[in-house]
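Field reference: sequence -> structure
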Amino acid sequence: IKNLVVSPDHPLYPWPSKAHFITSLLFSSPRLPFSEVQKKAVLSWAKELGVRNLPSLGTMKKCQSHLQYLVGDPTEKVTSHSGNTFYINNIAKAIAKDYANPLTRLAMQDYPEDGGKGMSQVFNGTKMLLDLPSPPAVQVNRTVYFTDELLQESSGGYFIPNRFFLAAEVRSHLCNVCLSSNVCQAGFIVSDEQEIIPTSMFTRSFGDIAATCGEL
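Structure field:
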């Protein structure tokens, strides 16, 4: 395995060669799993065609073990009391790796989406939109706004956001909020009616409001 370890500045790091990278990519496809017999057949086929620097199946196994050592293996082997063996994936670690991947990160959906009556993805469902806890925060112009905190929007009104979600028709973050009104020295009276406010109207966070003397 020592020959498989390459420097981080190697153009194909952590793979030692393009042949290792392409072969590993093929054999690691999550939607097209290869058996050991199939892997041997593919490598034998490529060898007969005269492919140069073709890694052996044993070398590929060592390469895969080295990659798992570098990035961690999300799959855990568990044996039950009856002797049955199961393999469990750590969902949290798998999601963290997707966020760390610049290719998959762009395709991930952080907020539930109000898709109306239609539903094509799990984040379009009513349960994701209304029944489950809301994402706790949203970032607008480098300022982070949290749910259940007093905020201010561009027209000067105060409100307390209850839930962040995407409006499918405009593809922008919207906030389902419980509005508050400033009543002189009596403080804030929270309205019973909820309204929807685009996050583009958010102007001041609770920290900004609290930092202003006499405003709270």
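Note: The chain is about 30% helix and 30% strand.
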